[in-house]
Design brief:
The protein is an alpha+beta fold and 139 residues long. The protein contains five helices and four strands; from the N terminus they run βαβαββααα.
């Protein structure tokens, strides 16, 4: 193995959080580099590491991977957490897709006005409890 994976993201949760969770579930130690200045981000851009000009980025096994879903799929497969066959992988992909949909309601929450936060909070709670949590509880 080529050392610990290195995670590049802003000092917060966001789209890096499920990557952290999956690495933790796999028992894999990792390093993090928090992008705290514009210069750090620009350096990654200029170096060609950010194919789509965005983070998260994970250095793992000699690769600089971007796109959360691709990173999660790679880590899950590498550590045998991606099902035993095609059917299980398809089910896992469905649950991951649902989680991504739910996260879409949450990701921009910190950037909303106080009034809009109240509306969005109610929407998040309603969608989570009526649409998403019942699916997770069932499986």
């Amino acid at each position: 193995m080529a050392g610990k994976p290195k995670l590049y993201y802003f000092n917060g949760r966001g789209k890096m959080e499920p990557i952290r969770w999956l690495l933790a579930a796999a028992g894999v130690e990792f390093e993090e580099e928090f992008l705290e200045t514009r210069e750090q981000y620009e350096k990654l851009l200029q170096g060609g590491s950010l194919l789509f000009q965005q983070v998260p980025m994970v250095e793992i096994d000699g690769m600089k991977m971007v796109q959360t879903r691709a990173i999660l799929s790679y880590i899950a497969a590498k550590y045998n957490l991606y099902g035993k066959d095609l059917k299980e992988r398809a089910l896992i992909d469905m649950y991951v897709g649902g989680t991504e949909d739910l996260m879409g309601f949450i990701l921009f929450f910190p950037f909303l006005s106080a009034e809009d936060k109240e509306k969005q909070r109610a929407t998040i709670i309603q969608k989570a409890t009526s649409r998403y949590f019942p699916v997770y509880e069932k499986v």
